[in-house]
Amino acid sequence: MRDRLESIAERLARASVVDRLVISLAALVTAVLIGGVLVFVSGAFASCRTGLEMGGATFCYNPMQVYYELFLGALGHPLEGGWTLTNYSLATTLQRTTLLIFSGLSVAVAFRAGLLNIGTQGQLVVGGLATAVTVVYAAAVVPSGFIGTVVLIPLGVLAGALAGGVYGAVPGALKAYADANEVITTIMLNIIAVGITSTLLSWQFQDPNSPNPQTAPVPEYAEIPTVPVVGFGGRMDFSLLALAFAVALMIGIAWLFARTSFGYELRTSGIQPGAAAYGGVDEKRMTVASMTLSGALGGIGGAFWVLMVHGRWIENVPSLGFDGIAVSVLAGNSPIGVGAAAFLFGIFDSGGNAIGTATDVPPELVGILTGLIILFVAMPEFFRMLGRRYVTVDSASPARTDGGDAGANDGGDADA
Amino acid sequence: MPMRNSVHRARTALEQRPLAAAVGGVAAFLLVLWATPASWQTSTLRFAVPIALAAIGGIFAEKSGVINIGIEGLLIVSAFSAIVVVNRLGDGGATAGLPNLWWGMLIGVLVSVLFALLFAIVCLEFEADQIIAGLAVWLISLGLAPFASRILFDSPNTANITRFENVTVPVLSEIPFVGYLLFDTEPQVYLMLAGAVAGWYLLSRTTFGRWVVASGENPKALDTAGVDVRKVRYAAVLLSGVFAGLGGAGFGLGTLGTFAGTGDTVINGRGFIAIATYLLANYHPIGALLGSFLFAGLNSMQNGLQAAGYAIPTELIRTLPHMTVIVVLVFVGRTRLPDAAGDHYESGED
């Protein structure tokens, strides 16, 4: 019974890989096109000295220039002179890629279990604070230097994973035992996380030497070390070691899905909760377990944000967790796909800065593009219809963007 | 399936108790609210506007079988565009005989309906996953409002506009206890009260309301009866755009006067609170109105405590409504969703 189920699931997955890849690419291209039109049109409402005169209006923004800055600015303008591989822009892109792999994996794990964890952001915020506080306090008793590095970094990451895991387990338990819709609870928990952490900060953990809301800095030897010689050293806030860890974790999660019974049960719960229950999976425990794992991954993202980027927790946490949703959706919730999607959104983040400095277009454009990409990935039927009109393909089985029936939040009903 | 029906019946019976508890809780809270200063009560009504109207809109969409989680986005775009319209037409003036504030209201609702239409097309024509598409609507709005604001105002926050003024109904405003609250207030509060009654009437007393319910519970039967399920769902989603638009624009023009676009924007999850509100109210529009008083009351209570200078951790107290949402969801988690909610319906299927 189980073998048969597994082979069906495997075949479904393989058949839809190409389908999903095409849909993700099509969604990306469509979002970029619509974003370009938006940029061009909104240029008519902006004020500028030079612009494209057309039909009595002045269009201030050139979408081509905007996208040139977005995509190539994020790499440090490789087509212009004096380019080196280890430039600051690329370092920022890869730094974001690293962090987005964590948050993307966090969302993907929950998605594959049929749960929509919108709460990665909150889990990352809570995990990051736990990391910073743990490392700052532990540094007082741990010897400095190499030993400090070897002890404090794993300790900090563990603290982040634990705190994030607990914060993820809460909506998991609420879903499992009280049927509380995880989409709403996690969104609320994101807002609550901000309240809790800033209260804790002002109550106990505020850096007394700083007017800004932030914790005391972790010692320099507790920051993620950079690789000597290869590059990206100094003040670039990026470490290839961290990226390597993220990629390793990505492969680990892929392995977990493909090769372990836990991963199998998790995926089956996402695709066919009824079949999973029939096969002996404890649905409630699986819900809590997958949300805990998801939260822990978000917490690890927070840990690396603290230990790699700022060396401390600061109150103004970037929207890495929300972007993780986009990463996972675009990746079709595949762990390996998360790597590629994280790189794309890393480009968006870093390129957003380039847009801000090189053009007058508001950097919020990146947020709109993110939303558009999610929207188009959510409507694969749109592209299939387009496809059917212009090319004849024998349509593969429909690929769900969420790997499960997330819409029916009173789970049992749909399969009772 | 008889098995399924009996399961349903058993669950419905189970649900009635927590629901009664929830209703009791809200009633008790309203009583407590009664004892609070008049300024708290007024601000409760004003803060209830976006929650109540968005919740009533959400009821129509979800009852018809389309879960519109994007109402947060609808609140954002309607509040933002209403304020922009007033600012561009001229603060305090009138255009073509209509005060600019009402132009703002009109355009705000229109923009919200356009976004709802986009969402409806995506869900009903292209069979998108409703939750993900709703999230996308939220995220697009979350980017679009500050994007446009930076172009128009050079800042993620808009300029200030002069807000709606109180409209006093003669005689009625003299009624003891409720008169000053319900009949000497701002236009958006009247809209909310009227909207709740209209929503209730439309949903439970008209043919259209019955179609909406059937479209969510048993689309096949509705289809067999010769009613176009797709059209009913379009109408319901657009209606959710109208209600959310009234809520967002009314909130922006009557309570805020400016739109702050940083972070989660000034809407700050009120659309999601609205969803919890209608679940708490078990899809009853009047219940949603009362439920919105719970969340808005917490909001104004927190503002009142802060103004009174109590040394409370403000950041944590600010999240009181959001914590309450979670508590509410735990109690009403077993609210039964319409049977076909979240599913695409294809006429002539199987």
Structure notes:
Chain A: This is ABC transporter integral membrane protein. Chain A: The chain crosses the membrane at residues 21-46, 98-118, 124-142, 149-170, 182-203, 238-258, 288-308, 320-345, 365-383. Chain A: It comes from Natrinema pallidum DSM 3751. Chain A: Keywords: Cell membrane, Membrane, Transmembrane, Transmembrane helix. Chain A is 68% helix and 1% strand. Chain A has helices spanning 2-42, 63-73, 88-112, 120-138, 146-178, 182-205, 240-259, 261-271, 273-278, 283-310, 320-330, 335-358, 365-377, 380-390, 412-415, and strands at residues 52-54, 57-59. In chain A, strand 1 (52-54) and strand 2 form a beta hairpin. Chain B is built from 14 helices and 4 strands. Chain B has a two-stranded antiparallel ribbon. In chain B, 70% of the residues lie in helices and 2% in strands. Chain B has one domain: ABC transporter involved in vitamin B12 uptake, BtuC, CATH 1.10.3470. Mean pLDDT of chain B is 86; it is low at 1-15. The longest helix of chain B has 33 residues, at 2-34. Chain B starts with a helix and ends in an 18-residue tail after the last helix. Chain B has helices at residues 2-34, 38-63, 71-89, 100-124, 130-153, 179-182, 187-205, 207-217, 219-224, 229-256, 270-280, 285-307, 314-317, 320-332; strands at 94-95, 98-99, 167-168, 184-185. Classes of the chains: A mainly alpha (416), B mainly alpha (350). At the A-B interface, helix 6, helix 11, helix 13 and helix 14 of A face helix 1, helix 5, helix 11, helix 13 and helix 14 of B.
How does the SSE layout of this entry go?
The complex is a heterodimer of chains A (416) and B (350).
Chain A: H1 2-42, E1 52-54, E2 57-59, H2 63-73, H3 88-112, H4 120-138, H5 146-178, H6 182-205, H7 240-259, H8 261-271, H9 273-278, H10 283-310, H11 320-330, H12 335-358, H13 365-377, H14 380-390, H15 412-415
Chain B: H1 2-34, H2 38-63, H3 71-89, E1 94-95, E2 98-99, H4 100-124, H5 130-153, E3 167-168, H6 179-182, E4 184-185, H7 187-205, H8 207-217, H9 219-224, H10 229-256, H11 270-280, H12 285-307, H13 314-317, H14 320-332
Antiparallel strand pairs in B: 1-2, 3-4
Helix pairs in contact in B: 1-12, 2-7, 2-8, 2-10, 2-11, 2-12, 3-4, 3-5, 3-10, 3-11, 4-5, 4-10, 7-8, 7-10, 7-12, 8-10, 11-12, 11-14, 12-14
